Amino acid sequence: MFSIITNDNQLENISGMNSEFPLVVRRINMAKLDVPWHWHEEVEFKYIESGVLRLRTEKDEFLLHAGEACFTNTNIMEMSEAVDRTEDTNVITFVFHPALISGHFQSIIDKKYIKPVLTNRQIKMIRITSETEYGKKICKALPKVQKLYEQENTELQIRNLLSEIWLQLIKEIETQLNSRPADSLRNKDRIRYMLQYIYTHYAEKITLEDIAASANISEREALRTFKKSLDKAPFDYLNEYRLDKARELLETTDLTVTEVAVSTGFSDSAYFGKVFRKYFESTPGNYRKKIRKD
Q1: How, if at all, do strands 23-29 and 90-96 pair?
Q2: What distance in Å separates the CA atoms of residue 236 and residue 238, rounded to the nearest whole number?
Q3: Residue 12 sits in the same domain as residue 53
Q4: Which of 143, 177, 211 is the endpoint of a domain?
């Protein structure tokens, strides 16, 4: 397993992104990748080549099958995982800065076509299938972008194709928004504040009161918000996050198991070993040996 790279606020650092041509296209086997909750400033399309991918935002969850795609708006917290880890789930991701197709800031394209999408709080993650004319065109065009990306001197072709995809996306969004009510922003803001607190203080002793206070709500409301948004309790999420951080330290450092436990908020190394084994089906020491052997 390996993970995407994020900072302490779970803002993903897009490897390979540059200002000259701000687009990164990657083919990923999600059955071999851990993708925790994260967000990034760039927008993203995903196209499913094989397998079934589960995607979640703070509020929505859906499955994508081979031949389908999705759009994730800027700064939207999301996570994704393969439904079946025993089979390949190949996904092509297209992450790009909107300036790639809008041109300079405050251009007519930016004002009329880009900003209305980026600033619409109802647009988080859009599932795209071949059920509509617009979705069908997007699903056919995305693999073409991937092929062009692997060739040289295709920047203008890629930009033109992404512009056409964006135009179809606008039509698809209008179709979907007309068929569903507006989302409440309250849960989204609350869960983001609480998750940011966990990402910053996970190595410290944290109480439910601390987590709730970060969003200025009661402990009871914090429990309700976590359940509604992430379908788990705050401390279940905190433990999972600590374990993921511990796994990273085991893979990338020579810290002892006890030092890893302390560094990730586990005051008892025996308890750390117990929950690590339950989560990863291996002791911390055996996990490190296996990873380094591989």
Answers
A1: antiparallel
A2: 5
A3: yes
A4: 177
- Using an 8 Å Cβ cutoff, are 14 and 40 in contact? yes
Q: Cβ atoms within 10 A of the Cβ of 16, count?
A: 10
Report the C-alpha gap between 272 and 201 in whole angstroms: 18
Q: Note the maximum CA span of the chain.
A: 61
Cα–Cα nearest to 280, from 12, 34, 98, 16: 34
CATH number at residue 96: 2.60.120.280
The packing angle between helices 284-293 and 234-252, to 10°, is: 50
Q: What is the pLDDT of residues 14-25, one digit of tens each?
A: 667 888 999 999
Cα atoms in the Cβ-side hemisphere of radius 13 Å centred on 176? 22
76 shares its domain with 202: no
CA distance 35 to 41: 17
Which helix (H) or strand (E) element contains residue 24? strand 23-29
Of the candidates 134, 156, 177, which is a domain's last residue? 177
Q: List helix spans (H) across 121-185.
A: 133-149, 155-177
**Amino acid identity for residue 251 in this structure:** E
DSSP helix/strand/coil, 266 = coil
pLDDT single digits (tens) 122-165:
888 999 999 899 999 999 999 999 999 999 999 999 999 999 99
Which residues form the domain of 80? Answer: 2-177
Please compute, for residue 16, the number of CA atoms within 13 A of its CA located in the half-sphere on the CB side: 9
Residue found under tokens 């065009």 = 141
